[in-house]
Task: structure prediction
Amino acid sequence: MKSNTSPLLLKIIFILAIAVLFFIGAITYKHLDLLNKNAQLVEKTYKISLEVQKLLSILKDAEVGQRGFIITHDEKFLEPYLGSRERLNNAYLNLKTQLKNDTIKLKKIQSLHGLIYRRLNRLEYNIYLASTGEKNIDLDVGKETMDSIRTKIDSIVSSEEQNLHFRQIQYKNINSNSPFIIYLTLLLTLGLLSFAYYRMSISFTELTETYEKLKISNEINSFGEEVGRFGNWQWTSQNNKLYFSNNLYRLLGVNPLSIEPSLDNFYSFVHPDDLDRVKQNTTSMTETGILPTIRYRLINSQGENLNVKAQGKSIHDKDGNTTIIGTIIDITDEVKMIQKQEKQNEELETKNNELIIVNESIALGEIIGKYGNWHWNTQNDSWYFSKNLFHILGEPTDSFLPTLENFYKYVHPEDLYFVKHNFEEMKYNQILHSMTYRIIQANSGNIINVKSVGRPITNTTDEKLVAGVTVDITDDFNRTLEIEEQNRILEANNKELQAFNYVASHDLQEPLRKIQTFISRLEDNELDNLSDSGKQYLSRIQSASKRMRILIDDLLQFSRTTRAEKVFEKTDLNDLLENSKLELAQLIEDKNAVITNDKFPSLKVIPFQIQQLFTNLINNSIKYAKANVNPEIVISVSKVSSDKEPFLQDIAKQKFCKITFTDNGIGFDQEYAQKIFELFSRLHSKDDYSGTGIGLAICKKIVENHKGFIFAKSEKGKGTTFTIYLPE
Result:
């Protein structure tokens, strides 16, 4: 319900009601004043009558006391008499005070006072006579005085009663119309007040409803502030006062009203990097009355950084006062969301770029790898062929609808049944096992060999797919044919090599043994018959035959290393090293060689090959010892990882047993570190150092048989170190 009563009308009604109330108040006051005066007169009359009666009563008590004493001579009866004078004086003084403005009555009282004292004197005389023993006391003396006293008292009381009656008539005449006037005025006032109350009740109801709505609105606003993480503020220019809403305090991390709402206190929460900008905008706001949207950071009392957005505008009241109202919104989550979105966009863009690159790489990989990919959606029976799959079929990209029936058109007729059968099975078990068949290319008519394979996958929308590839293996197929032909030739060569080995081990050694036998007989029987030149020739023939035997033995050893069965056994390498030392014991003793070594582990190796490796390396170090210097060979062993070894940086991480042979021999230039492992490679002439150049080649072959590595490091004149890595 909406009231249309004007506030001015309510003011007029209230003024009239107040005026009427004042009028009623004046009449009532006058009436009450008359009542009060008459009451005072009544009271005065009553008091005068009372005091007069009191005089008579005191006097009578004195007389009674006198008579009792005269009769009984008991002084107890004198108690009323003894205090009578004082009480009569007090009563007289009270009457005199009451009648001080009434001279007539005052004279009557004074006359009465004289009579009373005359009577008291007589009573005193009688008491005296009684106390002396006089028995003939005339008690009737003074009766006339008492009668006069009663007459005067009755006269005074009667006069007061007449005055009281007169005042009552006067009061009745004055106030006969007052109740009606007061009642009428009260009715009018009551009507005005009732109407005003009615209008005020309506206004109060509206005000209550408005207050409740405002209260609800404030609660909604407060709840909205908490949910929306914002706070309100207002600044009044008239008194330069700031107001913060409760949630603005909470944004600052403090309890509501716990700090004074002032700019300085607010500035203490602003991030130092944003403080100058905020102050500039605040100064501009006080001048223009507008705070444009500004974003900055706050540091709340808990030390948390908040990103906020502030905005304000000015409003003006009817008195011309300006108030700037505004809000501060916590946009930290929004900023984080934007930053997260930007990061996600960057990541998405990066992934899109990567996806483009991947797609291009896949497309390029398909071209280079000569394959095409395809997938079949088993739920809607749709197919997809990549670009290169069309090219493998000899067709332009997307030149036909990718379906199995269309694909079958390019399959070689002799392979069609086989291909259809495999694809039909794929529909049931969702897997296409590796299948090789032929394709007739549309653009050239060439027949190519391809291989297809597929497996089930689930995409991001939970659709069931079978993804697969079809690879052009024509080159591999032809290469396989070539390899098969090369293998056939290699087998023939191996047979020839085996025949050569047989010849080298039997047929070549037999003539060599005969030559050495005849040389031995010549030395024994005919040496003295030969000339000096003949003896020299014989010596050279003998030396050449010995080198021939050593060469044949080394070749056989190398052949054995190459062709021997690679049976690996768990072996204690310490035993193999000791066997090598025993094998070279005579040479070690002749050269006074000193060999020191660490304890070896047990490894899975080919025992006789590792022993041959140790023998060749020790023999090599003794052979190339310095002149007049005893050979010293140090053999060390350790367990290493390939990623920690400079020689093995290109090898995948793997554990190795590292063995090093270090000597103090003549050494060599490091540039020959690889050449020394080549077959028949020699760094010195056969006249300086014996040997065939096969020993280190055998070492390398043995290490390779164990999937290991061997390296040489040397400096001329400073010895050599051979490093061997055997897998654990």
